[in-house]
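Assemble and predict.
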Amino acid sequence: MITFNQVNKRYPGGYQALKNVSFEIAAGEMVFLTGHSGAGKSTLLKLIAAIERPNLGSVLVNRQNVGVLKSRALPFLRRNLGIIFQDHKLLFDRNVFDNVMLPLQICGFDYRESHKRVRAALDKVGLLKREKSNPIALSGGEQQRLCIARAIVNRPSILLADEPTGNLDTEYAQEIMAIFKSFHQVGVTLLISTHDESVLKNNNARVLALKQGELQS
Amino acid sequence: MRHAFDQNVGVLRRMFASKLAGIFNILAIGIALSLPAGMYVLLQNAQGLVAQFSGTPQISLFLEMDAKGDDVDRLRKQLEQQPAIASTEFISRAQALEQLKQSSGLADVIGSLGQNPLPDAFIVHPKPGGAQALEGLRTELAKLPRVEKAQLDSAWAYKLEALLKFGRVLVLILASLLSLALVAITFNTIRLQILTQREEIEVSKLIGATNAFIRRPFLYFGAIQGLLGGIMAWLIISISLLLLNHQMAALAQLYASQFELHPLSPGDSLTLLLFSMYLGWLGAWLSVARHLSHIEPS
């Protein structure tokens, strides 16, 4: 599903974020990405979504080399990905419901179908009762769950999560991990970056460890 | 389809949220457009006036006050021999006075005159020719015996015609400049809109929005703002004409004649609205093309 081949990423200014990273994630797998801050976790996720492009090597998503995709093709790659951002990237000028609606609007979904899907996604993360609230009124954990709802409403086959439990206490973190596991069970491919040791301990899954841009084996 | 519509309505509602700024924008566009369009209307009216009077040029030959009947006959024969003249028409002093009484609205004044101040006159209809040929004929006729004065009646119309041509160029220049202003106004408004919605644009790009999807509401906004500006210009012109016509009627009555400014024709109105809408769209398009590519998620 996701294949990295000898990937190098150097940012303008010379900072080498990833060095010779190679790995493969099969369809339906759940994989954790660990490492200290600055180890290159976010960069790796950005390469998958083609927010950044590799300097060397290739990144394949669904057998498509996303590093050389034309910018015109990017939207269609991203519609297959659900991305949960470290900083949520919620829009505070509209309510919870409309935030989750955005991906469906972008894909041009049927009106009635999209309303059903938004409710289903909100129900899944336990925010159905807050659909009229402004995201700013939500707690950190609720905002995180809203971000998940937005990422899954489009039913993507791949879910990328950047530090989804980063700022949450253990109880919330466990809730979130439970939600991810339920997606894993229905066959979604997940790549979750975290530096939270307890999350790794409680979940039995493959771990990719990054250290200063290099993959530890 | 319904959905795309909903989405656009949502975005547009957010864009039109700052009502006061929007109204001022529309007002600015309306005023900018109403200047050339209003001048165009006045020109059209003047044009109609000129066409009414200068359809066929004619030369008036005024005879000396003491010219007698056989002087008139002799002159008539001489005129008939002129190859450049199509026909002539004699108007005696009495006829002339009667006509003046009827057409000018000065009947009272004329009635109070002791004697007829008007001379006998010939109205000469020349064969078609250029302005120069007409002027040549006029000087020739002026030299005939017993002719006091030969006057080319359409001279003022030619002058007005030239003035109108000047006016039309002026309108064209003004229209071009103010159209540019309209495009600039929209360009700037859209730039601000893009800046305030930067976050939404970034997030939309991250979750798979195409450029066309992001561009669309901005283009709609530009077109709608242009259209509203056009409607504003139309209202400004129509109300101004209404006020002017009110005064014009009073003025015309004083001269016992009828004259009225005609408003924009339906075709011209439609052109004005479509043109302003197009300019708004163009300004938005330029702005979006310029500013949207700078917003990339990171």
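The interface with chain B takes residues 49, 51, 72, 75-79, 83, 85, 89, 91, 93-94, 98, 102-111, 114, 150, 154 of chain A (CB under 8 Å).
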